[in-house]
Amino acid sequence: MSRVYDRVALIGLGLIAGSMSLAIRRAGLAAEVTGYARSAETRATAREIGLCDRICDTAAEAAADADLVVLCVPIGAMGPVAEEIAPHLKPGATVSDVGSVKKAVVEAVAPHLPQGVHFIPAHPLAGTEHSGPRAGFAELFDNRFCLLVPDADTDTDALERLRALWRGMGATVEDMDAEHHDLVLAVTSHAPHLIAYTMVGVADDLRRVTDSEVIRYSAAGFRDFTRIAASDPTMWRDVFLNNKEATLEILGRFTEELFALQRAIRTGDGDLLFDYFTRTRAIRRGII
Ligand code: NAD
Asked: Are 100 and 124 in contact (CB under 8 A)?
C-alpha cells in the first residue's frame, strides 16, 4: 500500500483513534502518526504501548505540520478541539472527524476552520463496546463502511486522499449527506443503544425484587441484546444530545410498534404477533 499523507494527527486516543493509528501503520499510509489526548494518563498509556509514532502534550503540537488531522473525541468536544487547533493548522491541510453524528459536528467544527483548510467529516461504521487507548486494533475497519460527508465545495483532491486513506485501512467508502446520515444512524445504531441501556435498567430494577437472579441467570437473549449497553457513557450522552431530532423521531415510531405488540399480547391477538415476527424475522435474516 502506498503512502497517502506525510503526517496524520489523531486527536483523542480511544478505540477509534487507536485503531486508526494501528491500521495506518499496518498499511504504511503515512510517514508519521502523531497523537494527543486530553488526559495525561491516556497519553502515558499511549506512549507505553507505542500507539502512535509520537504522542504530543498539546493538540496544537500534534496538529502542527499535519496533512490530515482527525478529531476522534466525543461529539461534545469536537467544536472546542477544532477551535484550539485552528491557529496551528497548515494551509492546505485536511481536517476530518469520526463522530457518530454528522450535522451537529459540521455545525460545531466548520466555523472555526481557517480559509484554505479542507473539512471533510467522516464516520466509520465500526466499533465495539470497549473504549480507551488499549481498546484499538488494526482490523477494526476491515470490510466495514466508512461514510464521508463532502459538500458541493469539497476539494476533489482532498476528498480522494481521504477516501484512499480509509480504503487503505480496510474500509468500503461511501458518501452521504449529513442529515440523512443522522436519520439512518438513529435507526441502525442510536435507538438500539438507548433501548439496550433501558433493558439493563429494567433488569436492575427487577433485581431488587428477585435478588441477584436476573443477572445470575441472564439468558443468551439478554446478553446478546444488551452487549452494547457496556459502551462509553460520555460518547453516548453526546450522541443523543446532538442527534435529538432523528432519535426522537425513531423512538416515537418504536414506542408505537411496542404499544401495538403490547396490546396484541393483552388481547391475545396471536395472528398479529405471528405475522409481525414472521415479517421481521425475514428482514433480520437478510442482514448478514
Ligand atoms: P473513547 O472513549 O475510546 O476515546 C475518546 C478519547 O478522547 C479518549 O482518549 C479521551 O481521553 C479523549 N478526549 C475526550 N475529550 C477530549 C478533549 N476535549 N480533547 C482531547 N481528547 C479528548 O471513544 P471512541 O469510541 O474512540 O469514540 C471517539 C469518537 O468516535 C466519538 O465521537 C464517537 O462518536 C465516534 N465513534 C465511536 C464508535 C464506537 O463504537 N465506539 C464508532 C464510530 C464512531
From this structure: no
